[in-house]
Amino acid sequence: MASHHRSRYREEQRLREGEHVKQGQWELRINKTLGEGNFAIVYDCVSVRDPLARQGTRFALKFEKFEGGGELKKDEALLSALRETGVVPKIVCQGTHRGNSFIVMTKGGMNLHDFRDKRIKREYICDKALHQVDVKLVYALGYCMLWALKKMHACGYVHRDVKLANFLLDHDEASDTARVSLIDFGLSKLYRREDGTHVEERPPDLSKFRGTTSFASPNAHDFKDLSRRDDLWSLVYILIELYSGTLPWRLGNKAEDRSKVKEETRKLKVKLAASEFYQYFQSADGSDKYCFNFSQNAGVAKGKSRLDIIQLKRLHDMARDLKYDEEPKYDELLNRFKGECGGLLKLDRFGEPTVVNLSAFLLPKHHGHNRREAHQGPSSTSAHGVGLTNHSRGGTSEQAQKRGRDQGGGAAHQKRRRLEEVSPAAKPANDEIEERLRQQPTVFKRRVELMQTCISDCVTEDMFNMFMHSYLKEQIPKRGGKYARNLLVNFLATWCDAMDKL
């Protein structure tokens, strides 16, 4: 029995930072992890050698965790089938490394989940810090995502795991334009036969939940066979989250067990699907607070006449009313979304969309205040839910920095303080050693000469002096302050003790 279990065990493999992956004329160096799933890891990598001499070009490498798993075959097939659509990354290289399969793809930017969290300002709404995307940008991104799904469906596939993290936003800052692409086809499947007819709906399979709990359609929660309508359902939830900053099943779900979370989410999704659309934005306590987008002040009591969510409602109603094998009215929805995006879309001659003027809605890159605002609480926001800056606390930014220094703030400052601190027990011993060396310079000089004699059989005198000069006179002082002195004194004391034993 034990040997049987061992034979079934597959060791998980990971790539190391700096590791080189070679395949034919390609050689790539691994930089960092971009994302991870149950069966594969995606790494950022850079070309060291490639057929087109594009050294230094960045790519995404998807690596199977388990040898012989075959998990990337579906990704390879889908990316090959969709390569002419312009909505998926292109495969540039594939092979095996350390026995595990990998594919190398063009890099498509940051996924929408991370992009939203890092580049969209947080506001306090419904007593929660939420990233709310401007409603015009919601419709522009919605157009691009719906376009990608339309192209995939036209090739005969349904995705079945549509979520924020499976869309990439490639933002070209020079032109301030962005393209959206679709990734991760591990759950995708063909929904039509070679003759173009739709496959029949299979009975529910209670052993298989497909998708991600937050974005899965009500049909997925009921273990039903998924089709094009369910990709649209998931898109509805994505756009609601971008618009309001959250989803209703995240606001009130306190369950810790995964099965309970899924069941509570399912119940709420079914209830809301049959309710008025504005209830998707109602606060968890059932009060008259709503997580509406504050980029437009279009709300009235209970939000029934908000004009900015009408097209989201139409998408929702279409996804809800579609039959299993019914084709969505993509073009109708695309035209409605385009009319609401305020000129943020540009279409090329093939109809492929590009988002323009994106930076107008984003925080600067490496913005330091966004994460801190989330922890300041409602007390640091205005009546309209807009986070206040350091100026609202009184004083200039320089004064705020001084407050941080006075309070021991800043990782670099704290580290410098720790290095300069000397423990009370170590300080007398260090002072004693330093005083002894100062009073007996000839003894110290003789010990140095003896040390040189002892190591002469191993290294030359020049090499020894080079080490002494480099380490004691260049490296240690760089550390600064009392820390350098204490390290130097301890080094010399250990040296002297070693000489005494010779």
TrEMBL record:
ATP binds at residue 62. Keywords: ATP-binding, Kinase, Nucleotide-binding, Transferase. SMART domains: S_TKc. Residues 377-399 have a biased composition (Polar residues). One of its GO terms (molecular function) is ATP binding. Its EC number is 2.7.11.1. Residues 367-436 are annotated as: Disordered. It comes from the Eukaryota. Residues 28-319 form the Protein kinase domain. It is an enzyme of class 2 (transferase). PANTHER family: CASEIN KINASE-RELATED. Belongs to the protein kinase superfamily. CK1 Ser/Thr protein kinase family. Casein kinase I subfamily. This is non-specific serine/threonine protein kinase. It comes from Chloropicon primus. The lineage of its organism: Eukaryota, Viridiplantae, Chlorophyta, Chloropicophyceae, Chloropicales.
